[in-house]
Amino acid sequence: MENGRNKPERREYTVMIVPHRGGGKSFSLRVPMKAIKVTAVALSCFIAAGVATFANYQATIHTAKADQQELALLRANKEQQEQKIAQLAKATADVQEEMNRLTQLEGDVRRALNMEDTATSRSGVRRPGSERAGGQGGPGPLNVDQLLQQTAALKDELATREERLSDMRDDLTARNSRLAATPSIWPTSGDVTSRFGWRSSPFGYGSDWHPGIDIADSYGTPIEATADGVVVSAGWNGGYGLFVLIDHGYGISTAYGHSSELNVRAGQRVKKGDTIAYMGSTGASTGSHLHYEVRVNGRAVNPADFL
Ligand SMILES: [Zn+2]
User: How far is the CA of 226 from the centre of ligand 1 (A)?
Assistant: First the structure.
């Protein structure tokens, strides 16, 4: 059906429509090659566009599905996070509660020790029942900022608590040291044969001032330091015989006379209960006994007040 021309663009085709049973007219349609090409291109474009649209549609559906899955995941995640925040709020409230109990306990300890009770009165330390944000239960939305504030406050409180306990420890250490330096035990065993104060002289020359107490027991009975301290002197001292003087600090010292033998040297540090000498009858003595003195700022006081 070529029309015989050479250039392909100018070729034309004839489409004939002939009735089958001869009765009607037959049609013939001349179609230029160019029109066929244009139609083919247009058709291809149309198909391509359709395919692209379909692909895009598929992709959109896929994305929507993925989004939906992600949303579900995020929702589940959010729920989990909220549960965790609730747990955190509960834990924080519990810690606060513990802290309050600790404050009470500290107050009790201070009162028991007759210390100034600042545990429950000093500003900045919250008492039980004071306002607390969050952690009070209920399904309301939980505020992370409030939780952060709470934990920051707890941290501050811990720092304060540490400082206060440290002060308390120093105070107690000082007390203990004071207590250890206080002559509070009997220096030896035996009977008190002479008390502190005026007495008739054991040597028969009227009355004399007795600056300590005499405790009599058998020769060689151990004599103990009645408090922690440092030996100031250990040796012969006139009427005291073999004598030990211990300085306990705080202006307090103790003296031990008439020993048969000494167990310490001057400059030596002793603890309460250490054996410092053995009972004897050296110096101005009428028999085996210990002459024991307690001195406050150099002045003899009644040792009985310390026992
Ligand atoms: Zn005496």
Answer: 17
In 3D, which of 172, 179, 174, 190 has the Cα closest to residue 271? Answer: 179
Under 8 Å between Cβ of 261 and 280: yes
| Distance of CA 197 from the midpoint of ligand 1 (Å) | 10
- For the stretch 226-274, pLDDT in tens is 999 999 999 999 999 999 999 999 999 999 999 999 999 999 999 999 9
Domain boundaries, the chain: 8-72, 85-180, 191-306
Handedness of CA 61, 66, 67, 72 (dihedral sign): positive
Cα 192 to ligand 1 centroid, rounded to whole Å: 10
Q: How far is the CA of 215 from the centre of ligand 1 (A)?
A: 8
Q: How far is the CA of 288 from the centre of ligand 1 (A)?
A: 11
Tell me the pTM.
Answer: 0.61
The tens digit of pLDDT for each residue in 24-34 reads 788 888 888 88
Q: Does domain 191-306 have CATH number 2.70.70.10?
A: yes
